[in-house]
Amino acid sequence: MSLSGKTILVTRARHQASRLSRELEALGASVLEIPAIEIVPLESYAPLDAALRNLQQYQWLIVTSANGVRVLGERMASAGIGVAKFSGLQCVAVGSATAEGLREFGLPVGLIPGEYVAEAVVEALRARVAGAHILLIRAAVARDIIPDELRRAGAMVDVVDAYRTEVPESSVALLKAAFSGTMIPDAVTFTSSSTVTNFFALLKKAGMDDLRERVKAISIGPITTATLRERGWEPAAEANPHDIHGLVEATVTALL
């Protein structure tokens, strides 16, 4: 299994890209890191801090990303809240990296949905949360499938933003350079719907032509794939499982 001679464009946020890049480079690929997404702090963490001070009212905690875990840990430290305060909660992690992050903080993860998408969270919890109070920690401007569907199942869901995302302006010049040099990427990896949406925003800002016929898209999962298809870009491969290791294997499959 080799990616020797292949150039892969990684669109993940800069602080998260290293693992994916390392695994691709270990297989011989040349990697171009051009973040399509930048994690930006909120103007106020008051809602999150208030929820953490009142953890006793919740029976479930759902965290949808590793970024959410990172901010959760920061706010816990800032407020002096230890893991003992979470003893009455059942923790749900969307994705293996999210689960790993929670465990590093000492929080036991009781549930990781089989697929790392909102729909799988709903299916796993729908029959278990009637009358329960749920704290959902996520990115701002995320899809509302989890809170909407769990409320329909009889739960009370408090949605708290942990961070927001932006299109990195610095990536416009990087993108132009990537497609004007000698190492034109063979594939672009996408780790979320946001990276897809922002990548097209970067293309527009860079005044670049459509890449869909020239470069293969590799998707981390079904929601990302759906966003690519909405843009008319059929992914060459989709990760299974929907994590970084699966994305690397999908890249190899697409480029062999």
Describe this structure as you would to a colleague:
The protein is an alpha/beta fold and 256 residues long. It folds into two domains: 7-37 and 167-255, Rossmann fold (3-Layer(aba) Sandwich), CATH 3.40.50; 46-164, Rossmann fold (3-Layer(aba) Sandwich), CATH 3.40.50.10090. The chain has helices at 17-26, 46-53, 66-79, 96-104, 118-125, 145-152, 170-178, 193-206, 222-230, 244-255, and strands at residues 7-10, 30-33, 38-40, 60-63, 90-93, 109-111, 133-139, 156-166, 187-190, 216-219, 237-238. The chain has a six-stranded mixed beta sheet. The termini are close together. The model has no long low-confidence stretch (mean pLDDT 92).
Secondary-structure topology with pairs:
Layout: E1 7-10, H1 17-26, E2 30-33, E3 38-40, H2 46-53, E4 60-63, H3 66-79, E5 90-93, H4 96-104, E6 109-111, H5 118-125, E7 133-139, H6 145-152, E8 156-166, H7 170-178, E9 187-190, H8 193-206, E10 216-219, H9 222-230, E11 237-238, H10 244-255
Parallel strand pairs: 1-2, 1-9, 4-5, 4-7, 5-6, 7-8, 9-10, 10-11
Antiparallel strand pairs: 3-8
Helix pairs in contact: 1-10, 2-3, 3-4, 5-6, 7-8, 8-9
Task: Please provide a brief summary of the model.
The chain contains ten helices and eleven strands.
Radius of gyration: 19 Å
- Give the helices and strands as they follow along the chain: EHEEHEHEHEHEHEHEHEHEH
- Domains counted in the coordinates: how many? 2
Number of strands: 11
Average pLDDT, all residues: 92
- DSSP strand (E) fraction? 15-25%
Biggest sheet: strand arrangement: 3-8-7-4-5-6
CATH class bucket of the largest domain: Alpha Beta
Q: What is the straight-line distance between the termini?
A: 8 Å
What level of helicity do the residues show? 25-40%
Gross CATH architecture of the largest domain: 3-Layer(aba) Sandwich
